[in-house]
Amino acid sequence: MSAHSIAGWIQGIAVVVTGVVLGSLVGGLVGAIIGGLVLAPFALFYGRAVKQGEVYTGDGMGIWRFLLDATWSSLNTAAGAIYYGSHMLFGHTFNVDKTRGTGSLWIDESVSDDYATTIGTVKAGSNERIDDHEMIHVFQARLFGPLYLLLVGLNYVIATILPYWLLFKDRKPVTGFGSYFLDGVYPHVWNELWAYKYAKKPAPAPAPPTAPAPA
Description:
Layout: H1 3-53, H2 62-70, H3 74-89, H4 96-99, E1 105-107, E2 117-119, E3 122-124, H5 131-144, H6 148-161, H7 177-185, H8 190-198
Parallel strand pairs: 1-3
Antiparallel strand pairs: 2-3
C-alpha cells in the first residue's frame, strides 16, 4: 500500500471517528453508531480524494498538515468531507492536478458563481487569483482546530446582530438587505479580515478578447 493510500485511509478513519465522538456526545452509544454511519460514506469519498490528489506530498510541511488534519483539526476535516461529498453529488469537478501537494482539495465549481468557499481542507470555486486567500482559511482551520467553526459562526452572529463594522471607514456602503450581509457582515468577520489583509493581492482578471473590427 502506497503512502498516498495510507494517508487517504487515515483521513477517512478520522472523519468516521469524529462522527462517532460527536454522536456519542449527543446520544450515547446509539448516537455514536448513527454518527459513524452517517459520516462513513463521506469519509470513503474524501479518503479516496486525498489518495488521488496526493494531498500531503511536496514540501516538508506535508506530514504536519496530515497529522493536524487527522487529530487537532479533525472536526474541520469531517466538515470538509461532508462539503466535498455534497459537491460530488452535484457533479462538480475534483481537480487532481491543482490539488497535488497543496495540503488542500481543489473543486473547480463553487456554491456561488461570485464567491469561493473553503471548509476544512476543501476549497470550492478557487482560482489562481484568489487561492492564497482560500489557503489562509485552510491554515486558520488547522491553527484553531475544533474551535474554528465555532469562532467563525459566533462572529457571524455578532456581526449580524451588532454591526460593529459600521464604524469601519473603508467599508462598502450598504445598499439593501443582501448588501448588509455581502458588503457588511461577510468581509468583516475575523477570519475574512485576516485573509484579506495577509493574502497576496489578486492579479487583475484577464480582459476578454476583443472582437476584430469589421473591415
